[in-house]
Automatic annotation (TrEMBL):
Oligomer and partners: Heteromultimer composed of HisG and HisZ subunits.
Protein name according to UniProt: ATP phosphoribosyltransferase
ATP phosphoribosyltransferase catalytic domain segment(s): 53-204
Reaction catalysis annotation: 1-(5-phospho-beta-D-ribosyl)-ATP + diphosphate = 5-phospho-alpha-D-ribose 1-diphosphate + ATP
InterPro entries per record: ATP_PRibTrfase_cat, ATP_PRibTrfase_CS, ATP_PRibTrfase_HisG, ATP_PRibTrfase_HisG_short
Family affiliation: Belongs to the ATP phosphoribosyltransferase family. Short subfamily.
Function (record text): Catalyzes the condensation of ATP and 5-phosphoribose 1-diphosphate to form N'-(5'-phosphoribosyl)-ATP (PR-ATP). Has a crucial role in the pathway because the rate of histidine biosynthesis seems to be controlled primarily by regulation of HisG enzymatic activity.
Any one Pfam family match given in the protein's UniProt record, by short name: HisG
Record GO cellular component, one term: cytoplasm
Species lineage: Bacteria, Bacillati, Bacillota, Bacilli, Lactobacillales
Domains (record comment): Lacks the C-terminal regulatory region which is replaced by HisZ.
CDD domains: PBP2_HisGs
Length: 214
């Protein structure tokens, strides 16, 4: 039987994902001592892991190169794609927010400039509120955009709030919660139904147990 290929998101949620997989008995020691390696065949189970950027998790799953992807709902919301979202892993919790310097004027009718890594999410949010805005796409360190006068405010993810605080920004609007999701390629779900469902069931049961504190 071919190994199930799982695309994991590098960075922010990587360690929490590995912890969760180990909690359900999937030995991931090779992922903990990985150095610069990016593809890992488990010597213990029928799993193969690839470590990629969040948006690329979607691409690998969409193209059927990976069977399963583990990625934040921020990325899924921003870049709607063909996949099954099967489970909320309830890790990597944070939220989308509108933030700016304390002097940001929300009530005037001037057309606002919003800097963000998430242009579709920002556009949808303000459109639903009936506000016409201009969006400037930024790839990272978005917090400096209002400080340097590039934008009036930002739409970004906030986890601890440290980055906002350390840059003198405050939250003006809490847009929506974000958490890590397990997604599956549609064809792979049909082909590897048993293996995929077994993993999803195990994770789901474990997450429920953690919730009730067993
Ligand atoms: C994210 C986000 C904020 C920060 C928020 O950036 O864009 O900058 O994390 O986290 P906090 O509320 O815990 O401070 P990320 O670390 O993913 O890096 P990036 O700026 O390079 O995108």
């Amino acid at each position: 039987m071919p190994k199930l290929k799982i695309a994991l998101t590098k960075g922010r949620i990587e360690q929490k994902t590995i912890d969760l997989l180990e909690e359900i008995g999937i030995n991931c020691d090779f992922l903990r001592h990985k150095k610069r390696k990016l593809v890992f065949e488990s010597p213990y189970d029928d799993y193969e892991f690839i470590l990629v950027k969040a948006v690329d998790v979607l691409t690998y799953v969409q193209q059927g190169v990976a069977d399963i992807g583990i990625v934040g709902s921020d990325v899924l919301y921003e870049d709607e794609n063909e996949h099954y979202e099967m489970l909320d892993l309830e890790i990597g919790k944070c939220q989308f927010c509108v933030a700016s310097t304390p002097s940001y004027e929300t009530t005037d009718y001037r057309r606002k400039i919003i800097a963000t890594k998430y242009p579709n999410t920002a556009a949808r949010y303000f459109q639903e509120k009936g506000e016409d805005i201009e969006i400037i796409k930024i790839e990272g360190s978005v917090e400096i955009a209002p400080l340097l006068g590039l934008a009036d405010a930002i739409v970004d993810i906030v986890e601890t709030g440290d980055t906002l605080r350390e840059n003198g920004l405050i939250i003006f609007e809490e847009m929506m919660p974000i958490s890590t999701r397990l997604i599956v390629n549609r064809v792979s779900l049909k082909r590897n139904k048993q293996a995929v469902c077994q993993l999803v069931d195990q994770l789901e049961a474990h997450i429920q147990q953690k919730k009730v504190g067993v």
